[in-house]
C-alpha cells in the first residue's frame, strides 16, 4: 500500500508539473497555426464584381463613364475594369477605405445623394444581373505599384489556400509571387488577402502590355527553374485557383 501511495504521489506531481507546460505548448502551437503577419493600419480595399445583363453591357459602361464622378466624389476608386476573359459581361472595381466607419459614412451619404440616385443608381440597377463584394487587405509584404505606362491588360489571379492563414502558407506563397515578378515576367500591382468573403483567398493583380505579352511571359516563366521550384513549394497549400483578364475602362484610375 505504501508503495502504491508513493507511485500515486509521483504521478500527481508529474501531472502538476508537465500538464501546464503541455497546455502552454498546445496553445502556442494553435496560435502559430491560426495567426500570421498582420497589417499595421486599418486601410482596406473593397472588391466589387457586377454581372451585367448581356444586352445592357455597352449601355451600362456608357452610363458609368458619364456618371462615375458622382460616386468618386464620396470615396477613392482604385480601378475599374471590364472582364474580357474568364467572365463575360462582368465589371470589376476596387474601392479604397481608411476604415469601416468611413465606408459606413460613405454608404450613408450615397443613400442621401439625389444626383447619384436619380442619375445613376435608378438607371444602372435594372441593367445588373448580380452584385458581389469582398473586403481585402494588402498583404504586409506588398504595396500598390502602378504599371510603368497606361493601357495594357490586367490579370486578377485568385488563389484559394488551405485553412490556417499566412502563418501556414504565407512564406511559400510570397516566394511563388516574387519569383514571377523579379525576373520581369510580369508587373506586380498588388497582392490582397481576403478579410470578408471567402476566407483564405489571395488575389494577385498583375499588369501586362497586352494578352500576347502575357502568354509569352508565362511560357518563358514555366521554363525558369526558380519559378518552377517556388510554385511547387506553394501548390502544397493550394486548394484551387482561377483568373480573369481585365481591360481598364477609360475612367479607371489604374489604366
From TrEMBL:
Would you say which domain of life the source belongs to?
Eukaryota
Pfam families associated with the record: NIPSNAP
User: Record's Gene Ontology CC terms?
Assistant: mitochondrion
* BP-aspect Gene Ontology terms: mitophagy
What InterPro entries does this protein's entry cite? Dimeric_a/b-barrel, NIPSNAP, NipSnap_domain
Domain NIPSNAP, residue spans: 45-143, 154-253
Give the record's family classification: Belongs to the NipSnap family.
PANTHER family with a match to the protein in the record: NIPSNAP-RELATED, PROTEIN NIPSNAP HOMOLOG 3B
The protein in question is named: NIPSNAP domain-containing protein
Organism annotation: Conger conger (Conger eel)
Amino acid at each position: 500500500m505504501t508503495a502504491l501511495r508513493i507511485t500515486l504521489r509521483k504521478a500527481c506531481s508529474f501531472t502538476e508539473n508537465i500538464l501546464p507546460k503541455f497546455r502552454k505548448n498546445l496553445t502556442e502551437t494553435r496560435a502559430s497555426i491560426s495567426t500570421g503577419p498582420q497589417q499595421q493600419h486599418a486601410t482596406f480595399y473593397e472588391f466589387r464584381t457586377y454581372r451585367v445583363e448581356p444586352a445592357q453591357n455597352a449601355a451600362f459602361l456608357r452610363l458609368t463613364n458619364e456618371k462615375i464622378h458622382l460616386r468618386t466624389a464620396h470615396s477613392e476608386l482604385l480601378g475599374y475594369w471590364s472582364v474580357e476573359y474568364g467572365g463575360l459581361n462582368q465589371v470589376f472595381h476596387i474601392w479604397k477605405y481608411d476604415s469601416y466607419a468611413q465606408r459606413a459614412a460613405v454608404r450613408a451619404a450615397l443613400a442621401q445623394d439625389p444626383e447619384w440616385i436619380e442619375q445613376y443608381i435608378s438607371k444602372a440597377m435594372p441593367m445588373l444581373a448580380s452584385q458581389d463584394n469582398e473586403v481585402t487587405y494588402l498583404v504586409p509584404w506588398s504595396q500598390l505599384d502602378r504599371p510603368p505606362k497606361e493601357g495594357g491588360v490586367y490579370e486578377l489571379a485568385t488563389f484559394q489556400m488551405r485553412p490556417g492563414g499566412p502563418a501556414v502558407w504565407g512564406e511559400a506563397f510570397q516566394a511563388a509571387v516574387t519569383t514571377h515578378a523579379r525576373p520581369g515576367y510580369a508587373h506586380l500591382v498588388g497582392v490582397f488577402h481576403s478579410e470578408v468573403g471567402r476566407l483564405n483567398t489571395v488575389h494577385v493583380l498583375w499588369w501586362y502590355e497586352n494578352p500576347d505579352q502575357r502568354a509569352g511571359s508565362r511560357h518563358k516563366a514555366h521554363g525558369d527553374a526558380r519559378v518552377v521550384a517556388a510554385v511547387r513549394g506553394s501548390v502544397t497549400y493550394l486548394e484551387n485557383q482561377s483568373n480573369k483578364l481585365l481591360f481598364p475602362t477609360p475612367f479607371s484610375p489604374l489604366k
